[in-house]
């Protein structure tokens, strides 16, 4: 959080200065209105997503390397214990959850909120190289780095200290808070619960990474292509059913085979 807050605006400002026509015309510094306008554009959003995602991944990798436990075990980078079907079931469950929450927002009149709607509008305008950049940054980079930190580094330590229920809930709550917007945070919290359950049951980060990458990529492509359910009630029911069935399968198969989470010495800060 501190790294993103301190360094993010500086990097965004540097990007703005290098790409702004005002600089070419002799301007030295953008005013706050220009800077705020840039942050609301697709390049501004992608830059911010790349900064925040990369920073979270770097923190997880550095802290995991400093841990007395080997990095692959500390971050859960080993083989999944859920079997091959998990590579299909977990992403489908995540997509169903995404669909259900979006439909619930629409049916309740809660909407997406100004900040989330601004982000969605910016992504919807992605074309060509910008679309490829959006898929790589939002779909792959941010999703992978966020999972490295929240499910790999954070959740595994919380589960080891407080047990699976508290560890998954607290990591998901922090994941939601990190999105800084009520609407986005509610989705992130719910999504974190699902992929957190999958990661714990698999004793591996990879099912959560795949689900997150698939979810973000499909969301970006659906926005660009204008794909949407015309009947939100149908979307809500099918989404809830898909997520519930996936969760039931994970609970039935995973915990019996999952190993105990790694124990870290009490004197260690990693």
Q: Helix segment count?
A: 12
> Uncertain runs with pLDDT below 50, 5 residues or more?
22-26, 257-261, 266-270
Shape: globular
Q: What is the element string, with H for helices and E for strands? A: HHHHHHHHHHHH
From the N-terminal CA to the C-terminal CA, the straight-line distance is 17 Å
Largest sheet: none
For the CA atoms, what is the radius of gyration? Answer: 20 Å
How many strands in all?
A: 0
Estimate the strand proportion: under 5%
pLDDT average, as an integer? 82
Structural class: mainly alpha
Q: Helicity level, as a percent range?
A: over 70%
Topology:
Layout: H1 2-19, H2 21-24, H3 32-39, H4 42-66, H5 71-74, H6 86-108, H7 114-124, H8 128-162, H9 164-177, H10 182-202, H11 206-225, H12 232-253
Explain what the structure shows:
By secondary structure, the protein is an all-alpha fold. The protein has a domain at 79-253. It contains twelve helices and no strands. The chain has helices at residues 2-19, 21-24, 32-39, 42-66, 71-74, 86-108, 114-124, 128-162, 164-177, 182-202, 206-225, 232-253. Helix 9 (164-177) packs antiparallel against helix 10 (182-202). Mean pLDDT is 82; it is low at 22-26, 257-261 and 266-270.
